Amino acid sequence: MSGPDISVVICVYTEDRWEDILAAVASVRAQSRPALETLLVVDHNDPLRERLAKEYKEATDVRVLANAGPRGLSAGRNTGIAASYGEVIAFLDDDAVAERDWLRHFAAGYADPLVMAVGGRTEPVWASGRRPAWFPEEFDWVVGCTYRGLPPGRVRVRNVLGGNASFRRTAFDAAGGFATGIGRDGDKRPLGCEETELCIRLTQARPDAVLLIDDRAIIHHRVPEAREHFRYFRTRSYAEGLSKALVARSVGAEKGLESERRYTTRVLPAGVVRGVRDALLARPGGAGRAGAIVAGVLTAAGGYVVGSVRARQGAVTYSVAGIEGCGDG
């Protein structure tokens, strides 16, 4: 098997996703290019950790670990990185399943030694069976999926998307781990952007670093019914604004908002035009999609303003830890 050994980290936190977790692990174990190992990092939930340890006690390719840091996704990922042995560490959401060639496409991206990260495409699996008519594809990031506006193929990007991503281990040597205090924390407000902040910090530390997205590396991400409603859409958009303010505070507004400027000045206006056109042609959901885009932009902007004020006042803190563990040396 050519290419780097790949460890897969899946961060988990609730028994409510038990069947999803088992499906995620099964999809990794069924890869056409086998993973070196799968690490399940449990976020401060001893009953879940014990149940998973019992489930996989006979498995030599699955390890169950407790999050060694503060509660939240970033510290869980850092725990997985430190405990892993692979030259590349891939991350898969606990409510997603990877297609069979997922890791094969990741591995191919690392043929170039300058490539420090490779991400993939994340497709939504709607609980209701179909996309809500009002839900714009430009905002699929709200439900953790690839959104309209990202370039197709295998292309260079500013940042990969965290639920379907991989990094060379030396990326963490250069930039440190995921910043705690930016990303998700269990059932609290659905923050994000920790992978964006890490990727920008990485390219600042290693200006020659190449980050790619290969849209053939596909996972399917479950979208629960509660996230199909406008209330969640609005809450998540506001949280994105808060998160982007922290990213801008950490790495500077120029880099922190570089991709977002193109997105808001080109991709979103085109989406509004499409929605209005569809409404005029009496196609379902056109007006709703146009309205949702406008509402999402305004809500995210409001979150950004509030987050910027809080960051300047020191009301929100975050930190970046170095990674030390099995892969060292």
Strand content: 15-25%
Number of discrete helical segments? 10
**Which consecutive residue ranges, at least 5 long each, have pLDDT under 50?**
183-187
What is the end-to-end distance? 23 Å
The tally of beta strands, per DSSP, is 9
Cα gyration radius (Å): 19 Å
Q: Could you estimate the helical fraction of the residues in percent?
A: 40-55%
Structural class: alpha/beta
Mean pLDDT: 89
Rough outline: globular
Structure overview:
The chain has 329 residues and is of the alpha/beta class. It contains ten helices and nine strands. It has helices at 18-29, 46-55, 73-83, 102-109, 169-175, 194-205, 230-251, 253-256, 258-280, 286-313, and strands at residues 6-12, 37-42, 62-66, 88-92, 96-98, 115-126, 154-156, 164-168, 210-223. Strands 1, 2, 3, 4, 5, 6, 7, 8 and 9 form a nine-stranded mixed sheet that branches. Helix 2 (46-55) links the parallel strand 2 and strand 3. It is globular. 47% of the residues are buried.
